Amino acid sequence: MNESIARAGVLGTGCYLPERVLNNRELAERFGCSEEWILSRTGIKERRFAEPGTGSSDLGIIAANRALEAASVKAREIDLIICATYSPDMAFPSNACIIQESIGAKPAAAFDLQAACSGFVYALVTAAQYVIAGNMRYGLVVAAEINSNIVDPMDQKVTPLF
């Protein structure tokens, strides 16, 4: 294999989940079905709910800082931030820009990528392509969602999924 071929890899990961848990027992009681019925159709045992007033960028900031620490990369070294989200805090500025400001990655290019379930994969591949092309050295990919802000908790068809 040619050793001069550019490569990209994952240097570190970080995550954050809100503390409030909504499990299938609560949903089963709410919707008059069994926990097993929900699990068999969704594969999900529990969901996390952010506190009111929390934005998806708030979750992303914590996860981003943890990923940078795990990778031993300083925020000022980041060249690119992509935030995969379909539940951004607002249309403008993007969640990626909010994360960029908060973590101190001022020189980095930053944008959101909205592709729902496949968003993280698209963001990861996009960041890798920038690195492989030689345009960027370090990219930060953040996936952050808060579905509780956009889902009706009484909607029996959607709530068990999100």
Q: Could you characterize the architecture of this molecule?
A:
The relative contact order is 0.19. The chain has 162 residues and is α/β, with parallel strands linked by helices. The longest helix has 16 residues, at 56-71. It is elongated. It is built from five helices and five strands. The mean pLDDT is 93. Helix content is 34%, strand content 14%. The strands form two sheets. A three-stranded parallel beta sheet has the order 4-3-5, with helices on both faces. Strands 1-2 form a two-stranded antiparallel sheet.
Please name the defining characteristics of this protein.
single chain, 162 residues, alpha/beta, two-stranded antiparallel ribbon, 34% helix, elongated
* Contiguous runs where pLDDT drops below 50 for at least 5 residues: none
The averaged pLDDT comes out at: 93
**Biggest sheet details:** 3 strands, parallel
- How much of the sequence lies in strands comes to 5-15%
Number of helices: 5
Distance between the termini: 44 Å
Helix content: 25-40%
Structural class: alpha/beta
Principal-axis shape: elongated
Strands of the biggest beta sheet: in what spatial order?
4-3-5
SSE series: EHHEHEHEHE
Number of strands: 5
Rg of Cα set: 18 Å
